Structures are given as C-alpha cells and as structure tokens.
Sequence to fold (186 residues):
Amino acid sequence: MSSWHIKKAACILNSGGVIAYPTEAVYGLGCQPWNAEAVARVLTLKRRDPGRGLIVIAADLTQLEALIDLESGIPMAEISRTWPGPVTWVMPARKEVPHWLMGKHVGLAVRVTAHPIARELCRYAGPLVSTSANPEGRTPARTAYRVRAYFHNKIDWILPGRLGSHLQPTEIRLADTGEVLRRTSG
Fold:
C-alpha cells in the first residue's frame, strides 16, 4: 500500500465520499464526521439506527480537540495510556458536535487508532467516522472481497491493506467511570 492510495482515499473523503479501509480488526466504513450527507450514506449502507451513534477515529488527540470536551474532568492520563490503541472511549462532546455523530447519547465515542493505515489516513484526511463494514446484523467484513459483496458499487473506494491482529472490534469504555460497554478478547 503506497502513499498514493492514502492520498486518493483522503481526496475522496474530503470530497464527501464514503470509503472502506482496514482497521485493527475488520474493514471500516468511513467518511468525514462533519459531512451530514456522507454520514447519512454510511448509516443507510449499514441500515444502522441513527440513534446508536458512531465512532470517530483520529491519528492523535489534537485531531479530536474540536469534538471532545477536554475540560470536563475526564481522566485524560488514564485514557492517554490506552492510545494509540484499540480502546474507544465515550467522552463528553463539545456543544458544536453534530447530533448525527452522537445519536441519542450525550457523549461521543472516539479513538486514537494504532492501525498504521487508518492512522496515516487520518493524518491526511483528519478524523473519520469509523464503523464496521457490514449491514446491521451481518458479520463485519474482514476482506475487500466481502466489502464488495456487501456494498457492490455503493461506496466510493476500498483502501487496500492488511487488517490489524485483533479478532474483534475495539473495546468501548465510558470516560467518566471506566465502565466497559463492549469488551473484546483481542
């Protein structure tokens, strides 16, 4: 996978596109989090209830500063020890965060990814919506072939590359309490 692939994916994302890309455990569907039409496309492709909210991934914490409230008293030292890595934290969102990212929740699920391709993609394109590449209720795609089988020509591109070593999607924890909402075996 070359920097040309990353730049092409970033160009598609910055033009309002939806792509599939490798993550820690499965292929993800991604788009720009501030683009309402692109997020609506992702939700439609997945047949996902908008009330469930979405995860946003980033290359580093600074990319998340426009989205999360770092002044809310959350334990950033503990959170920072898990990043970059496969732990997603539900954190207090800034008031500017669009409702389509949080769904019916008051917090926003965010992660600084350690996956080299996803991280490089975020460096070029900024933070991204990241949800597993599968229709609701189906097994998440672990190959580009499965992504194509699920979505045919309804996504704009599939970024090539290897998945990470995790067998399940990332763990999700509440930032204020540390409560685990979704556990992973790794």
In short: The longest helix spans residues 3-14. The chain has six helices and nine strands.
